[in-house]
Automatic annotation (TrEMBL):
Membrane topology, from the record: Peripheral membrane protein
Any matching Pfam family: LepA_C
UniProt-listed GO biological process terms: positive regulation of translation; translation
Family: Belongs to the TRAFAC class translation factor GTPase superfamily. Classic translation factor GTPase family. LepA subfamily. Belongs to the GTP-binding elongation factor family. LepA subfamily.
Keywords from the UniProt entry: GTP-binding, Hydrolase, Membrane, Mitochondrion, Mitochondrion inner membrane, Nucleotide-binding, Protein biosynthesis
GO molecular function: GTP binding; GTPase activity; mitochondrial ribosome binding
Record function comment: Promotes mitochondrial protein synthesis. May act as a fidelity factor of the translation reaction, by catalyzing a one-codon backward translocation of tRNAs on improperly translocated ribosomes. Binds to mitochondrial ribosomes in a GTP-dependent manner.
Cited InterPro entries: EF-4 (IPR006297), EFG_III/V (IPR035647), EFG_V-like (IPR000640), G_TR_CS (IPR031157), LepA_C_sf (IPR038363), LepA_CTD (IPR013842), LepA_IV (IPR035654), P-loop_NTPase (IPR027417)
UniProt-recorded name of the protein: Translation factor GUF1 homolog, mitochondrial
Catalytic activity: GTP + H2O = GDP + phosphate + H(+)
Domain annotation Tr-type G: ranges: 43-224
Origin species: Agrilus planipennis (Emerald ash borer)
EC number: 3.6.5.n1
Intracellular or extracellular location(s): Mitochondrion inner membrane
């Protein structure tokens, strides 16, 4: 074995470090922009978004666009560059819209392309709506193997209603089972898109991506803005930075802004000094000025999460302006209680929820209290996946462990006319079953409805129709997309689909059916409050709001589940499900039995009878005076599985 002197090894080590730094500096200088981004005229700016169904290749196409424009080095091995959240990489989905500014040279002219990668799941449709508010065109991405799916239809009409230029693109044409002709026929039947307009690409290997860039430049118009007008910017996203506070992602609709300007928000009237301006490439690239048509980040020391109101208009202090037309505010579809595992962690959980709610404006937060779980919050979400992702981000990004109760939907109740209701209003919105009024106070009940869109192969039509009927759905239409696929539309109660509808649909169709839904207002219904009683005492935390036709079934399931979860005690526990004073379900949890006669080894039988009588009398007295004490873990298990 050859041994080298330690001094030589140290010199070689220092040389390697120096060489590594030299290579980094050389790469940085080679990749550094030689074009002043702020000097690019409006005519050479394109703002666009990518819309598609889940897993149709949005993030992969975004990766290739970053490579083709030089924002990321080719062959770097990085995937899902715009999916920065840990939950996005683990689940393989996009849950948060991300922006990136790209420089692309075409015909000896440098273009600025502002790309926004949007989510594809129905629960995050608000992110798509917000992204489209800053765009003039979209890429409609469709999988050449799976074809048009439910969210593809929903996203197309979102863009169509905003009068955006739509570039249809078929992805994954290199797959063995790809059938571009079939998918082109679907696009023609559903959206009246001619086959000649459809671009065929493979984002994974980069085939045809250059044609997409050419189409973006040639088909999508430049933003119709005036840089010489007063400054107005639409605040369409924000996030929290530990050192700089709340950062605002804006689309500049007119005028320009520079570092040092004083700005204010139209609705909140708060005044700030602009501390920093930047463009995402995809990392922050500092600039001294943002002009109309551009998308950028404003840092102005916003310290509170309540100051950055999504959809607000930012303008310079002292200028009178008309506010920009924002995007439609989202309405929570699912509500759930969030409580700290221990009340000593309440402040940490509060801070985490406030910071994460700033990054996710679709979440609504209100204080809540439970005698069993303590002080907590009632949060509103757009769906179950939205709820799961939010709680996962709480744990991963802020280390905040929490208890999530079973989700519920908001109900509308019309109260009877009284002096009190005339003052406070007859309409009442209920998100927590505890606040459900007594039947004699109510004139009408209303439950939220949705229009469900299902795209499925025709061999699964029978099971799907049976499922929708079971969930109280009413069929609106059925249309053939091609020879073996059809699209169904149903009016469905939101409460019936929020828990397990999607899972059952995937099971009965072997995963081939896709489901999407949109809000359809409220519909008159016959609702009742399902109360759970333990030995005649009502437990408010376990009550629920159900349709009268489902009360008996749900009541029996609740009683059976409680019998399995509640720990046995020294007394017998009668579990009852009651609706309007009528018992619809009952289970009995037997008491522990202590053998008080074990110490007897003989003698007269009256001694045995006397001990058993004393035991029976003791249990009777205990049942009369003792309250049933349920451990906190029992409530957690029941509320999670409700």
């Amino acid at each position: 074995m050859i041994s080298f002197p330690k001094s030589l090894i140290r010199k070689l080590h220092r040389f390697c470090i120096f060489r590594k730094k030299l290579l980094w500096v050389r790469n940085y200088c080679n990749n550094k922009d030689t074009v002043d981004i702020t000097s690019i005229p409006v005519e050479r700016i394109r703002n666009f978004s990518i819309i598609a169904h889940v897993d149709h290749g949005k993030s992969t196409l975004a990766d290739r666009l970053l490579e083709f424009t030089g924002a990321v080095k080719k062959g770097s091995g990085k995937n899902q560059i715009l999916d920065k959240l840990q939950v996005e990489r683990e689940r393989g989905i996009t849950v948060k819209a991300q922006s990136v500014s790209l420089l692309y040279k075409c015909k000896d002219e440098m273009y600025l392309l502002n790309l926004i990668d949007t989510p594809g799941h129905v629960d995050f449709s608000n992110e798509v709506s917000r992204s489209l508010s800053a765009c003039q065109g979209v890429i409609l991405l469709v999988d050449a193997n799976d074809g048009v799916q439910a969210q593809t239809v929903a996203n197309f009409y979102l863009a169509f209603e905003k009068d955006l230029v739509i570039i249809p693109v078929l992805n994954k044409i290199d797959l063995k089972n790809a059938n571009p002709q079939r998918v082109c026929n679907q696009l023609k039947n559903l959206f009246d898109i001619d086959q000649e307009e459809v671009l065929k690409i493979s984002a994974k290997i980069g085939l045809g991506v250059d044609n997409v860039l050419q189409a973006i430049i040639n088909k999508i118009p430049a933003p119709n803005v005036n840089r010489n007008s007063t400054f107005r910017a639409l605040l369409y996203d924000s996030w929290f930075d530990q050192y700089r506070g709340a950062l605002a992602l804006v689309y500049v609709a007119s005028g320009y802004i520079e570092v040092g300007n004083k700005i204010t928000l139209f609705h909140s009237k708060n005044v700030y000094d602009v501390k920093s301006l930047s463009i995402l490439r995809p990392e922050e690239y500092s600039v001294s000025r943002l002009a109309a048509g551009q998308v950028g980040v404003i840092g102005c020391n916003m310290r509170s999460s309540k100051e950055a109101v999504i959809g607000d208009t930012i303008h310079k202090l002292g200028e009178n302006i008309e506010p920009l037309e924002g995007f439609q505010a989202t309405r929570p579809m699912v509500f759930a209680g969030v409580y700290p595992i221990d009340q000593s962690q309440q402040q940490n959980l509060r801070t985490a929820i406030e910071k994460l709610a700033l990054n996710d404006s679709a979440v609504t937060v209100s204080n809540d209290f439970s005698p069993a779980l303590g002080q907590g919050w009632r949060l509103g979400f757009l769906g179950l996946l939205h709820l799961e992702v939010f709680t996962q981000r709480l744990e991963q990004e802020y280390g905040a462990d929490s208890i999530i109760t079973a989700p519920s939907v908001p109900y509308k109740i019309l109260l009877k006319s009284t002096k009190q209701t005339l003052k406070s209003g007859r309409e009442l919105y209920i998100t927590n079953p505890i606040h459900f009024p007594e039947p004699f106070e109510v004139e009408e009940y209303y439950e939220p409805m949705v229009i469900g869109t299902i795209i499925t192969p025709d061999e699964y039509l029978g099971p799907i129709m049976s499922l929708c009927i079971e969930k109280r759905g009413i069929q609106k239409s059925a249309t053939n997309i091609d020879n073996n696929r059809l699209i169904l539309q149903y009016d469905l109660p939101l409460s019936e689909i929020v828990m397990d509808f999607h899972d059952i649909l995937k099971t009965i169709t072997s995963g081939y059916a896709t489901f999407d839904y949109e809000d359809n207002g409220y519909c008159k219904s016959n609702l009742v409050k399902l109360n759970i009683l333990l030995n005649g005492k009502e437990v408010e935390e376990l009550c629920n709001i159900v349709h009268v036709t489902k009360a008996s079934t749900i009541g029996k399931k609740m009683c059976s589940r409680l019998k399995e979860i509640i720990p046995r005690q020294l007394i017998q526990i009668n579990i009852q499900a009651i609706v309007n004073g009528k018992v619809v379900g009952r289970e009995t949890l037997k008491a522990f039995r202590k053998d008080v006669t074990a110490k007897l080894y003989g003698g007269d039988v009256t001694r045995r009878m006397k001990l058993l009588a004393q035991q029976a009398e003791g249990k009777r007295k205990m049942k009369m005076v003792a309250n049933i004490s349920l451990p906190r873990d029992t409530f957690i298990e029941v509320l999670k599985k409700q």
